Amino acid sequence: MAMNFGFKLCPSSALNLDKIDTSLYDKLVEMEPDARICMACGSCSATCTASQFSGMSVRKVLLDIQRGKEKEAAAMLRNCMLCGKCTMVCPRGINTRHLILSLCRIYDNKEEQK
Amino acid sequence: MIYQGKQKIWSDYQKEIPADHWFYARSCIRQNFFPASETHFLKIGRELLGKDICDNEHHTTCGGISYHSDTIPQETAMTIVARQFAIMTECGYKNIAPSCITSFGNYTEILETWREFPELEAKVREMLWKSCRKEFEIPEHVAHTSDIMYTWRNEIAEKAKFRLINKETGEPLRVVEHIGCHYSKMFPHKGVGGAEYPCVLSGMVNSWGGQVIDYPERRHCCGFGFRQYLVKANRGYSISNTHKKFESMEPYKPDMIITNCPGCPYFLDRWQYVIAEMEGRTYGENGFGIPVFTYEEVAGLVLGYDPWDLGLQLHQVAVEPLLDKIGIEYDPKAKYLGLNEKDIMKPGLPENLRCF
Amino acid sequence: MLLELKIMKDSIVIIGGGIAGLEAAKQLLTLGYTPIIVEKSDHLGGHVAGWNRLFPDMAPAQEIVAKMIKDVEGANIFLETEIISSNKLGNTYIVNLSNGVTIRTKAILIATGFELFDAHKKEEYGYGIYNQVMTNQDLEKWFNTSVDSRIGGKEIRKIGFVHCVGSRDVKAGNSQCSKVCCVTAIKQAIEMKQEFPDAEIYCFYMDLRLFGKKYEDFYINAQKDYGIHFIRGRVSEVSENIEGRLLVKAEDTLSGKPLKVTLDLLVLMAGMVCNQDGSKMASMLRLETDSDGFLRSKDNVCNIVESNRHGIFYAGACTGTKTVPETISEARAAALMIHNYINE
Question: Please, what is the Cα angle at C55 between C53 and C57, to 5 degrees?
Fold first, then answer.
């Protein structure tokens, strides 16, 4: 039986790129090749109607799914109102609104498969 | 791994270590954790190699443990260190040899600070005079006792009865070397071999027949970290660092670990018990742990001193499998007999970590 | 022993036979002068001669250098030669070379260029210690020769590029940005992706400084068409695992989390540092160095190619980190300035 010492091993917060699952990102890139050209400038999040109240950030969503954090990304996406302000400001011309919809479609398919 | 690349770096970081006449500064915690290590440093130096080492009863802790635990300000630590220097000066010595890595780091840091800020040195001289009526000379050389042992390594190898070789297979033992953080991370040029690839311990291991393992988390801290262990709420963080190191070194199947810091061997040794009891995970062969030694203990073992005189019964991880590998004889019944055959009592056995 | 003393007149001494020296020599030839190129190594073309292809259009470096060398056929070229001493006599300089030649010249052009930062100095990256660590220069050599034990015959699944090795690094003695490394890393990452289409490639950067013509397009290209991963964080430490692969640690600063990844090859983008020979030359000619260690121009805005001494001019990376087109432009500017100076 495991002995209780009053303290435990802390889980590591390090991102281990050897172990992350990027299947969601790979799928997204197939549908939305422009997902790759984000340069993390943050203008999408700065202008986002939902960001100040909910933590929604397209930049973070893209980063999270590249790092295999599907749940965190999904939680943010729920707050999106599809207003399209982010698409207006993206300097790389990424159709972020379309990208969000594609991402939701991937999530939905995954749910259905379950 | 390109060995010549390391040799090139080592040649850039060679410090001047005088051959003789040292003022010995003991560690406050090593005498409890590894009670025979300091005795054996003096024994090897004085009796075997004929060196002059002054062990003066008036010196104290360097204050490093309190300084690194955030309980005293640096000026206080400096005054304590100034007093050590004063005793060194009174005894007629010019070179100081701290036994503890944190002391070594502390002395080095203080001397470097005084070099940059002479007004602080003047202030400390005044404080020392007011508090103790003592004056001091700046030591000409500061060397950690592992630096000194490093200079003795070939002489010890010549006089050795055993080598770090597996008696059965004839293969060199696989040795993990772990350097205390305060040895050279702060001042790389003050450490033999620098900070990234120090050779102070690997030099000993190579001279004594072993093979050094370089594993990914070699540079990582043992997990002690003073406040990180001393405050119970932080201990999970402390042990997680140790756990990370063991997970990283395990694939190399190390036979032993050699260290030069007071905290590191203690935590690398004791935390193996805690990890075993907490997680059911052990890192040595057949349910044992990986034995952890101070460099004095390893020197003592190759020189053929009795393992129990070296204090190895105070280790948590059983050392017997390693002694058997090297072919060192020992009396299992004498393990828990202290001075004058006094029974020092056998400790209880852990559930998951195999011990004797 | 008496050395044969040759006096050459109407000549202009160019110290350094890299692209700056070659281009200036070509222009001076056109203007009717006799340039004398003094090069310490055994070949012309400097660093560029060892490169494979140049951004942004992947121009072959060796063809460019070969053409530049062909264009200076009328110049005097001394290879494996150094300046021993130089004295000013009125309006002329008497320059003594290590091969026994003495030159009287009205103008000296310093084109001593840069040195590549010695990547061994970043000990934590393990260059020369871990088998699978190489530099940008080593990789260009591999592109040219296809010979390198770090790449040949091994499975290469993951490759990393470390930007700013020895650049923007005050501790390494170089606070300057080397300018070309960001785009070189992107170029080399694309080239490696072309060689190893299944490999994952990571660029570890602090800032991407893609200031030049088409550099940003190159970056978009690397992201979109080659799927190169850009991780914002400086590599802190490299180690080797039991399989001989590299474990690389950095912070993913965009996530705010420490990050680690196992790689088969790590390429260090060694930066440009000031040339020690250039500094030696500077003290011999009583030239000043700027606060960044490079040679000090008369003015860093309007007059980069002139020094503070009459008759001594600069071209290329001796005054700071430069790209190839910048160097060539400066060499042309310097030739014109020398011409104007002589005809004053």
Answer: 90
Contacts of B280 in chain A (CB under 8 A): 2
pLDDT digits (tens, 9 = 90+) for B20-58: 999 999 999 998 899 899 999 999 999 999 999 999 999
Residue C160: give the domain boundaries: 119-272
List of chain A residues with pLDDT < 50: none
In this complex, is the C-beta atom of A14 within 8 Å of any C-beta atom belonging to chain B? Answer: no
Confidence (pTM): 0.94
Pick the CATH number of B14-142 from 1.10.150.20, 3.40.1390.10, 1.20.1050.140, 3.30.200.20: 1.20.1050.140
8 Å CB contact of C241 and B216: yes
**Most C-contacting residue of B1, B7, B211 (CB-CB within 10 A), to test interface:** B1
With tokens 């890595």, the residue in question is: B101
What is the CATH classification number for the domain harbouring C195? Answer: 3.50.50.60
Tell me: do C233 and C279 sit in the same domain: no
ipTM tops the 0.90 cut: yes
Count the alpha carbons within 13 Å of A12 in the hemisphere toward its beta carbon. Answer: 14
B-to-C residue pairs, Cβ atoms closer than 8 angstroms: 40
Measure the CA–CA gap between B104 and B81, rounded to whole angstroms.
11
Q: CATH 1.20.1050.140 residue ranges in chain B?
A: 14-142
C partners (3+ CB pairs within 8 A) are: A, B
Of the candidates B322, B214, B205, the one whose C-alpha atom is nearest the C-alpha of residue B259 is: B205
Question: Which residue of B194, B215, B216 is in closest CB contact with C123?
Answer: B194
Residue pairs spanning A and C at CB distance below 8 A = 45
Give SS3 for C182.
helix
> Across the interface, do B237 and A10 touch by the CB < 8 Å criterion?
yes
Cβ contact C242–B219 (<8 Å)? no
Domain assignment present for residue C254? The answer is yes
Q: Per CATH, the architecture of A23-113 is what? A: Orthogonal Bundle (1.10)
